[in-house]
Amino acid sequence: MMAGVAEDEEKWLAAGIAGLQQNAFYMHRAMDSNNLRDALKYSAQMLSELRTSKLSPHKYYELYMRAFDELRKVEIFFKEETQRGCSVVDLYELVQHAGNILPRLYLLCTVGSVYIKSKEAPAKDILKDLVEMCRGIQHPLRGLFLRSYLSQVSRDKLPDIGSEYEGDADTIMDAVEFVLQNFTEMNKLWVRMQHQGPAREKERREKERSELRDLVGKNLHVLSQIEGVDLDLYKETVLPRVLEQVVNCKDDIAQHYLMDCIIQVFPDEYHLQTLEILLDVFPQLQPSVDIKTVLSQLMERLSNYAALSAEALPEFLQVEAFSKLNNAIGKVIEAQADMPVFGAVTLYSSLLKFSLHVHPDRLDYADQVLGSCVKQLSGRGKIEDSKATKQIVALLSAPLEKYNNVVTALKLSNYPRVLEYLDNETNKVMASVVIQSVMKNNTRITTAEKVEALFELIKGLIKDLDGTAHDEVDEEDFKEEQNSVARLIQMLHNDDPEEMFKIISAVRKHILSGGSKRLPFTVPPLVFSSLKLVRQLQGQEENPFGDEAATTPKKIFQLLNQIIEALANIPVPDLALRLYLQCAEAANDCDLEPVAYEFFTQAYILYEEEISDSKAQITAIHLIIGTLQRMHVFGVENRDTLTHKATGYSAKLLKKPDQCRAVYACSHLFWVDDQDNMKDGERVLLCLKRALRIANAAQQMSNVTRGTTGSVTLFVEILNKYLYFFEKGNPQITVAAIQSLIEVITCEMQSDTSAADPTADAFFASTLRYIQFQKQKGGAAGEKYGPIKV
Asked: Which GO terms describe its biological process (predicted)?
C-alpha cells in the first residue's frame, strides 16, 4: 500500500515538474522579448503547479525549490522592467490580476521585494501589506511554503538599525512585528496539519510535520539576527509574544520544538535576564512535552555561559538563577503528575551539574538538589527503571567528578539518602565509582567519622544487601570488587595514632559484618594497616601517662587477634596462619614476648587442626620455621617449646623428601648469626643427621618400590647445609663429617642401582667447585677448607 502511494507521488511530482518547466520555458521566451504581459501569464501558470495537494512535504519541497529558482529570474526581470520605465507601483498592482490566489501572492512577494529595494514606499508598509495578504492561503502546506518564501525574500530588507531600509525611530518595532506576525501565522498553519486527515495516519502526519519544522523555526532565527532587538525589547515584546504563541497552540510537537528553538537561537545573557518569564511557561506546556530535555539544555547552556564568561557570575547571583530553576523544576513535576521517575531525576541531575559549574563553592545548593531528589523518590522503594538508575548514577557521580574529592561529597547529607533508592546491582556500581574516585585522586580519608560516612556510601560492596543472592554474583566481578575495597582500606591513614586506631576500629566493625566470602579480601589489608601503626608506635614507652584510653601496641594486637580469629573461623587457615605469623614478628619487634607467643600458639593450633592438605602443610611449616628463626624475644623455655613443636611437625610430613627438607630447615632454629645465646651446634648437627637418616630411608623406599635408589638431590642439599654451618663456625660440623658425606654421595652416584639425574649431578658438581674455589682463595677460608678432599 505504502509502495503504491510512493509511486503515485513520484508520478504527480514528475507531472508537476514537467508543467512547471514547460511554463518556465515560455516565461523565459517572453522575458527575453521584454513581453511583460506574457511573462506574467506564464509565470502565474508555472506557479499554479504549487497548488497541488497530492504531494507529501518532502516531494512538495522539491517542486517548490524549482519554482523558487525561477522566481529569482522573475525578480531580476521585474527590476529590469522598472529600469526601462515601468512604474513599480503599477507592477505591484498588475500582478494582483493573476487568476489564482497562490500564484498571485508569490508574484506579489516577488514584486514587493523589488518595490522595497526601489525605496519608493517605506519598507514597513510594503511588508505589512504582504504579510496581511498572505492570509489568503489557509491550506497548511501551501501556506507554510508561501510564508517561507516571504520570509526568504524579506530577511535582508527589514527596517533594522543600520539597514539601508531603516526608517523613523519606530521601524525596529515594525520589523519585529512583521517577523512575529509571520511566525504566528506559520505556527498556526503548522499545528493545523496535525488535525487534518484520519486518526490512523497520525504517525505519518507527525513525521511530515517534523520535516517542516525548520520553516517555522527560521522566523525565530531571523528575530535573533535583528540588530535592534536589545534586551529590553526582547524582554518586553519579543519573548512574551513568542511564548504566548507557544502556550496557546497547545500542540506538544510545536511546544517542544519552539522552546528548544528559543533556547538555541537567542543569546545566553538574554536567557539569564528573562529566566523567570521563560521558566513560568514550562508548567503550562502539554503533559506529553519532553520538558526534561528542553530544561536540561537551558541549564547546560547557562552552565557553559558561566564557564566561558567569569564576569557573568555576579549576574547569576543577582537574578537568583539557581533558586528560580529549582522552583521551576518543582512546579513542572507538580504540573505533570504522571512524569516518570526518569524525567524527574534527569531534571535534578541537570540542575546539580548547573549548580556545581556555576556555584562550586555552594555545597548547600548541591545538597538542596539531592534533598529535592530524595523527596521525589520517597515512597517509591527501590528504583527498577534502568534509565532512572542510570540518571541517579550520573547525579551522584557529578560531585565526585567536579571536586575530585570524595571528602567533599561526604559533606552532602542527602548523598547517602539518594543511594538508598538504587537497586543492589546499581548500588555496587556507585560504590565502585566512589572507590575509583578515591584511587584516581589519591584522596586521603583521615578521620573515623569520614570512614564511617564513606563506608555507608560503599556498603553495596562491603556487605550483602537485602535480596542479594550469592549464586547471582559473577566470581571474577566479585574478586575485582573486593580487591578494590582492599586497596581503599590501604589508603585510610592518619599520622595521629589515636585517630588511626579509631579508623581501624571503624573499618573492622564494617568488614566483620561483610560475610565470610569477603573476609579473605578485606582482613589482610586491615591487618597490615594495623601492623603499620604498631611499627609507628614501636619503641615508644608503653602508656607513659597511665591513660587507659591511649593507643598502645598491646591494644592493637588484641584487636588483631579478634580480626584474624574471624578469618580462621571461615575457614581459610592458610591465610590466617600467615597473618598470625606476621603479627608474631611485629610483637617480637615490640619486645612483647607473651603476645608473640600467643600468635605462634594460634598459628600452631591452626596447623594442627585445620591444615590437612600436604602441600599446604609444607608451605606452612617453612613459614613457621622462617618466622621463628627471626624471633629474638623468646626466653629459653618458650623458644624450646616452639622449636620442639616445629621440628616435630617437620618429621610428621607425609612424603620423606618433604620431611627431610623441613627437618634440615629446622637446623637454622638453633643457630642464629647475630645472637650468641642462640648458637647450639649440637642440636644443629642432630637436625642434619636426622635429615640424613630420612634421606637414607627415602632412598631405600625408592629401591624397594622402583628398583632404583632414586636421586641424590637430598644428600647434596644436606651437604650444602653442612658447608653453611661449617663456614659459620659451628664446631660440631667437622671436616671428617663433610668428607664422609661427599664420599657417600659419590658412591651413591656411581652405584648401579642409582637413577640418572642430570640436575642432581650438576648440583653436586657445582657444590664441589665451590669447595675447590674456597680452598684456592687462601687466607682463613683456604685454611679452613684445605683438609677437604674433592
From this structure: intracellular protein transport; retrograde transport, endosome to Golgi
